[in-house]
Amino acid sequence: MPNYDFQCLECGHKFTKLVPLQEKDKVRCPECGGHVKQLFGSFGFAVKGGSGSCSSSSSCGFGGFS
Ligand SMILES: [Zn+2]
Questions:
Q1: Which domains does the chain carry?
Q2: DSSP strand E in 1-66: where?
Q3: How many Å lie between the centroid of ligand 1 and the Cα of residue 64?
Q4: Transmembrane stretches, by residue range (predicted)?
Q5: pLDDT, tens digit, 9 for 90 and up, residues 30-59
Q6: Average pLDDT, the chain
Q7: If you measure from the C-alpha of residue 47 to the centroid of ligand 1, how many angstroms do you get, rounded to a whole number?
Q8: Residue 18: closest CA among 36, 6, 35
């Protein structure tokens, strides 16, 4: 049975609950009984490819002058 992270939409309470997949939509906040949304882990999602990425070596500036 997987662990899911939830946050209450009413009071903001965050909690982790062990629920079967089919019970996920029925989860309510243990504090106030309000509706909750599922929080997804931050793994792999927060990829910032903005400034200063040197993954492509040709445009890195080191040894590029011949
Ligand atoms: Zn709540």
A1: 1-41 (2.20.28)
A2: 3-8, 14-18, 36-39
A3: 56
A4: none
A5: 999 999 999 986 554 444 555 555 565 555
A6: 78
A7: 30
A8: 6
